[in-house]
């Protein structure tokens, strides 16, 4: 167990936060034929949201899929589903994934402002630039090349932030324009929260630059602590130049069992029973998207077959083992500047409860011990 000091003792003092992927699409969070006691319907998700907020979760992220793809035959729309979860909970913040290009930013800003008012300031968005070409072309929308998708997303975020915070919103961009627009009511304003939080993902240089310039949070695909450090450094360097700071989340698939061997057996079974055709289809689609980046640093560029069984490389984060092993691993990421874990699970209700009961208390103990040491 490494004991090098945290990057920044002051930011380390903030407890790690936790989010979970909302299973609002069918097929669960692994593309595998293993039994998954997880349901994509509303009743299950309502129960899950209430359980999660009582087991240490701060956020839930509703996925966005518009058509059947790679094991997800059915999908609930993310913004309406997020509002339903906000209404079913008291403290949980719910992040709706949205696609620029399929939303007008002013309409989306209005929608979220209403959801934010209704929920007492708990709405957030995750701006997804898009990797799945069919979602655009089958709806008759243009599919932009990689760099242009990120340019559009950046402008989308600037527009949404302007409309949420200004009384005479103005923006004159390449994709969007605003002329003396005043949104009323505006979203809820709170301490350290001038507007609903804006998340984004991506691994490419385009994504890192965009996060540094405009986003509140950067979600990284699953990766090693060393790989995450590089992304945090790149995004933070850009943010510093623009007088900003960005917080960091990392995707991880959680398999917590009483012993490491039990957890490894579950992982082996997930991969052994992978839906090979769906995983390979997903792999070729996302690798094609990643190779279209200028420097080949796109998401999934170096993902192996086993990594792709979990959409966002969640196995690579290594949250697989006993509670002590997982908590220790989480602290390793925190030392490198990670603020939040975005978790997926096999059997959501059981695994979320296990996390809250067995793992979270150890995380908090380790955080306290580390702060006392520094």
From TrEMBL:
Molecular-function GO term, any one: alkanesulfonate monooxygenase activity
GO biological process: alkanesulfonate catabolic process
Domain Luciferase-like stretches: 18-339
Alphabetized SUPFAM superfamilies for the sequence: Bacterial luciferase-like
Keywords: Flavoprotein, FMN, Monooxygenase, Oxidoreductase
Pfam families: Bac_luciferase (PF00296)
PANTHER family attached to this UniProt entry: ALKANESULFONATE MONOOXYGENASE, ALKANESULFONATE MONOOXYGENASE-RELATED
Name of the molecule in the record: Dimethyl sulfone monooxygenase SfnG
Originating organism: Nocardioides immobilis
């Amino acid at each position: 167990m490494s004991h090098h000091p945290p990057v920044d003792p002051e930011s380390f003092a903030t407890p790690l936060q936790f989010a979970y992927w909302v299973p609002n699409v069918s097929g669960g969070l692994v593309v595998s034929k293993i039994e998954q006691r997880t349901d994509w319907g509303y009743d299950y998700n309502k129960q899950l949201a209430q359980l999660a907020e009582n087991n240490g979760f701060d956020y839930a992220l509703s996925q966005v899929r518009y058509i059947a793809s790679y094991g997800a035959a059915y999908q609930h729309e993310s913004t309406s589903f997020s509002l339903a979860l906000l209404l079913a909970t008291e403290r949980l913040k719910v992040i709706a994934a949205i696609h620029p290009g399929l939303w007008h930013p002013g309409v989306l800003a209005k929608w979220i402002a209403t959801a934010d008012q209704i929920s007492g300031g708990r709405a957030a968005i995750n701006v997804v630039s898009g990797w799945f070409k069919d979602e655009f072309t089958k709806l008759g929308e243009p599919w932009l090349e990689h760099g242009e998708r990120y340019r559009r997303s950046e402008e989308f975020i600037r527009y949404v932030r302007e409309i949420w915070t200004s009384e005479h919103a103005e923006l004159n961009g390449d994709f969007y324009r605003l002329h003396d627009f005043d949104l009323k009511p505006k979203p809820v304003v709170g301490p350290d929260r001038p507007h609903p939080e804006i998340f984004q993902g991506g691994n490419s240089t385009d994504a890192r630059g965009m996060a540094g310039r405009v986003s509140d949070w950067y979600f990284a695909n699953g990766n090693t602590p060393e790989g995450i450090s590089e992304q945090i450094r790149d995004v933070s360097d850009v943010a510093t130049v623009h007088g900003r700071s960005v917080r960091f989340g990392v995707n991880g698939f959680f398999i917590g069992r009483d012993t490491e061997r039990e957890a490894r057996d579950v992982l082996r079974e997930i991969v052994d029973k992978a839906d090979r055709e769906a995983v390979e289809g997903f792999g070729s689609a996302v690798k094609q998207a990643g190779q279209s980046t200028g420097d080949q640093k796109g998401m999934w560029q170096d993902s192996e077959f086993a990594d792709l069984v979990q959409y966002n490389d969640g196995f690579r984060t290594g949250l697989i083992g006993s509670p002590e092993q997982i908590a220790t691993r989480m602290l390793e990421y925190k030392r490198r500047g990670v603020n939040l874990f975005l978790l997926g699970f096999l059997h959501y209700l059981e695994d979320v409860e296990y996390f809250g009961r067995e793992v979270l208390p150890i995380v908090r103990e380790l955080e306290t011990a580390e702060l006392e040491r520094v």
